Amino acid sequence: MLEKKIIIQKETGLNARAASLLVKEATRFKSESFIMKDGNEYNCKSIMHIMSMLAGMGEEILLKVEGSDEEKAFRALVELIENLRDE
To answer: What residue numbers bound the domain in which 55 lies?
Structure first.
């Protein structure tokens, strides 16, 4: 299992657009991916989970990825989350 703490840099946080991008990216991989926030676990392949997380700018999340293609999935998801910016 790979894990990384990430601070949300996007001013609007993981809003609907960002959540959609995250879910789309996570579903490309066989590995299971989750975000831990405030003691709760959210499935990265579920738009409802990601939207209900209400992750705002400056908040810390913990990304966890486990599975047969975890390294590729982990790199892709970390890059996506770290590079989310407001247009």
So the answer is: 2-82
